[in-house]
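Run log // design_07
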């Protein structure tokens, strides 16, 4: 099984920590390596890593991460990392045949969350998004979250950062078919900026954007110093390696 990991953004909200965001450490391991480790625990054997901002620093770490995790890693560098994340999806998906697990490099997940999600890997169209119904969890930043409103059958009706009506939050992990990149490309062709959410909304309008309810599973978007501090406290127990234990990256 294949994965696409987005690691191209500026990470301006966490820049004070010094490293490019995918290389910020949690319990002694970079966020990017956690993404690869967690993907590997869900059965992923190959991942395309899309880089942009400070790409050389990130790419030079890939061989070591691949060696430690047993997941082969293929870098894919984009020219303009200021464009919305859908452009990273377009670049990376072009390197992958068939369906794939789509992850953000600054998100951390419990093994159970991704294992539940990859059960959708053989889907025949559209995409499936991991969602959490616990909207008041401390790890959710209401000013930066991507919200989801579902239909009665569980498919996505609307997705975006500025929804006023919603019943779930986007966890930052998807199972994508080639339909997702096609939908993003269509949105761009129609004048949209090219965000991942714009592509998902196109699939939602067609009734092919499903949700996978992972409420109760641990996850966090490590997007600023507050969330980083929270991850340092919570990740050891949530990921099953014991309080206070750290790993060498």
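design_07 sequence
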């Amino acid at each position: 099984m294949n994965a696409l990991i987005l690691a191209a953004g500026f990470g301006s909200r966490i820049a004070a920590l010094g490293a490019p965001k995918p290389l910020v450490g949690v319990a002694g391991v970079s966020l990017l390596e956690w993404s690869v480790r967690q993907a590997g625990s869900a059965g992923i054997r190959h991942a395309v890593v899309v880089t942009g901002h400070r790409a050389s620093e990130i790419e030079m770490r890939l061989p070591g991460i691949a060696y430690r995790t047993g997941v082969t890693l293929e870098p894919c560098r984009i020219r303009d990392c200021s464009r919305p994340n859908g452009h990273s999806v377009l670049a990376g998906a072009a390197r992958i045949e068939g369906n794939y697990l789509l992850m953000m490099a600054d998100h951390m997940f419990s093994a159970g969350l991704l294992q539940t999600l990859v059960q959708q890997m053989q889907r025949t169209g559209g995409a499936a998004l991991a969602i959490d119904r616990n909207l008041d969890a401390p790890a959710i930043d209401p000013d930066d979250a991507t919200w989801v409103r579902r239909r009665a059958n569980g498919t996505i009706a609307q997705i975006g950062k500025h929804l006023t009506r919603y019943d779930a939050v986007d966890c930052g992990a998807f199972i994508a078919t080639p339909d997702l990149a096609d939908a993003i490309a269509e949105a761009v062709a129609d004048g949209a900026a090219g965000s991942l959410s714009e592509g998902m909304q196109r699939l939602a309008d067609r009734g092919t954007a499903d949700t996978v309810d992972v409420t109760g599973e641990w996850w966090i978007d490590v997007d600023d110093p507050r969330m980083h501090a929270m991850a340092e406290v919570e990740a050891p127990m949530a990921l099953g390696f014991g309080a206070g234990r750290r790993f060498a990256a």
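Confidence is low (pLDDT under 50) at residues 242-249.
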